[in-house]
Task: inverse folding
């Protein structure tokens, strides 16, 4: 069980700190309140190496988990269940431990008077800008159940699109892997046999055959073991370059121009933009905020820059369509 450290105030107003082992933040808070303490802050503390904590750190919250939560909470709110009770039910029934911890803290914030959307914003790794903005619009318009249903539908569509992309990528990836494995196997085991025969016969080999022999000699030499090191170094340099603003813009532009894969990346990003923008507009989110959120969630810096230009054009009184026609990804 996790351990929590609490910053507390006793009946005299004196600040004290205590630690407690509990199943959740909510349980620790309730126990301290029953003892007469005023809880100021609670945080989870590590207690050496713990497989359960390691498992929790590695666990993620999938789109499917969020879709199920949104759909069920929308049903409860539509049935007239209060937000506090609805969140309590969802927290108790949640099977994902990381999401359950976040919902426990969200429930505690809502009980203290915080808006649902503001409570969700404290967990940006689980509830992104799109989710929080739509919830905020639903709260302002009094149609939170409808917005949660739309969010569930959006997340379900997103999960379906992700599965379709994986399915589309599976075939070329498997074919490439098999072809590469066959080529390496031929170079390591078959070509060396023919290479010995060619040496006995003498004479000069054709250029293509000589290239295959050279590749085979390299793969069977100690230098072959340098390939993983080179690949690891290349990936490290690539990640560092991609973290820079110029690197991200440049590589995202390259991804859009790749043969076969570029069209898939483009269609995926544009489909995500259209679906997200439509959902935000139907939820009543202002158009400028919608364009900002869709740019952040596009996943491609080229498309994000195009949406940022469109947002500036709308802010200045212009229209979206002329700004979106400039980059080729929206034509």
Result:
């Amino acid at each position: 069980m996790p351990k929590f450290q609490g910053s507390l105030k006793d009946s005299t107003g004196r600040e004290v700190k205590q630690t407690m082992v509990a199943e959740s933040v909510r349980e620790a808070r309730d126990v301290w309140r029953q003892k007469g303490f005023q809880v100021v802050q609670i945080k989870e503390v590590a207690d050496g190496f713990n497989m359960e904590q390691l498992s929790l750190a590695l666990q993620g919250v999938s789109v499917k988990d969020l879709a199920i939560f949104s759909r069920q909470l929308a049903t409860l709110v539509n049935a007239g269940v209060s937000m506090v009770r609805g969140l309590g039910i969802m927290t108790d029934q949640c099977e994902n431990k990381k999401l359950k911890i976040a919902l426990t803290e969200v429930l505690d914030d809502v009980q203290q008077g915080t808006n649902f959307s503001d409570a969700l914003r404290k967990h940006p790794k689980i509830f992104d800008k799109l989710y929080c903005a739509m919830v905020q619009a639903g709260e302002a318009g009094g149609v939170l159940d409808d917005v949660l249903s739309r969010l569930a539908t959006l997340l379900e569509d997103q999960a379906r699109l992700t599965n379709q992309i994986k399915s589309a990528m599976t075939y070329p990836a498997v074919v490439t892997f098999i072809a590469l494995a066959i080529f390496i196997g031929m170079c390591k085991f078959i070509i060396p046999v023919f290479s010995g025969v060619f040496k006995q016969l003498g004479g000069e080999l054709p250029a293509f055959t000589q290239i295959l022999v050279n590749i085979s000699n390299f793969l069977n030499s100690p230098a072959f073991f340098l390939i993983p090191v080179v690949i690891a170094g290349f990936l490290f340099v690539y990640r560092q370059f991609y973290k820079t603003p110029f690197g991200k813009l440049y590589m995202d532009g390259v991804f859009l121009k790749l043969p076969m894969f570029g069209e898939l990346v483009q269609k995926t990003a544009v489909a995500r933009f259209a679906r997200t923008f439509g959902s935000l507009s139907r939820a009543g989110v202002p158009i400028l905020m919608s364009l900002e959120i869709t740019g952040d969630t596009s996943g491609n810096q080229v498309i994000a820059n195009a949406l940022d230009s469109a947002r500036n054009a709308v802010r200045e009184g212009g229209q979206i369509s002329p700004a979106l026609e400039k980059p080729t990804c929206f034509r």
